[in-house]
Amino acid sequence: MTDRIVSARVFTQPNELLGAEELRLTEVRGDLVRVRLRASGVCHSDLHVAAGEWTTDVPLVLGHEGAGVVQAVGPGVRDVRTGDHVILSWFASCRRCEQCARGRAWLCTGTKALDNVLPDGTTSFFRRDGTPVRAFLGLGTFAEETVVPESAAVPIPEDVPFPVAALIGCAVTTGVGAVTNTARVRPGDTAVVLGCGGVGQAILLGLSLVGANTIIAVDLSDERLALAREFGAAHTLRGDDPDLGDHIQAITGGGADHAFEAIGAPATIEMLPRLIGRGGQAVVVGMPAEGVQVAFDPFDLADQGKRIVGCNYGSSVPSVDFPRLARLYASGRLPLDRLVGRTVALDAVNEALEELRRAIGLRTVITQTIPCPNV
Question: pTM surpassing 0.85?
């Protein structure tokens, strides 16, 4: 069998540029699927690794927010076919553990994705000398092609643009799911969103979708706040306003029903309880660096009946939620194309990570149209 050699961007050391390498893909066997990447979002989780805030084994192909076209399937694959357009899930569930059986795929205990390997413990990529190269969250979408388990490849209609499909793979599912699945926001509820990057904007779209009222968006970027207003925010506030908490209390009449933190910063996470009213709910959506500690006043939480909950992947089941979100986009109810900022080639990934570090612009998406070589 001829080796498939693909170009990829490889992380080897914190705060170093991702290196361009030609890697060999593992063979397509069992329930594995080979996907030609057509779009890959540049997400803050990638930056956490690149900046050394999350520890990981190296070498590692970064990227986990992707969509593409299936090129080949293993003999054990049942639901995915060659030619299918698919969104990749970065938390490929095992479909066998108790959590999966209870319909809570986002809590799967049998996945190997967090180890950056395939279900059998092997890697998707290899250097030409045979050195294994891991794929971030089992995907490694900063590459021309990748090999993933079938549960990580979810078919979608072909009329969904690949950049939109890629964002459904992480930011959109996380943000909209935080509203609909984790918080279960009801029509008329009040809400505040701290951080209006890709996930924060998706939260705003989710809040508008379910009919939340008096939505407040908070960010440091005037561009992002302007888009937040278009997405349904009735009020926009600067995150560096020293009286931010007082303003939110005044607007909501004592605190919001829901507060979403989409940054992962200790200061904004600690702020959450003050932004919600009696019986209110704070949802931690943004992923912090490893080892971050925050402090809350437990008396306030108990006395006021407030709740703080964590949100992983929007409490989603990708095989259900990805197609549902795609249909909502197609119907015009979720204008997900508005979340796409710049589209760039794979060679520009280091520049895109730097822009993300500086919180510039909207979501940058890597797009690929040139057929990859088969050497």
Answer: yes
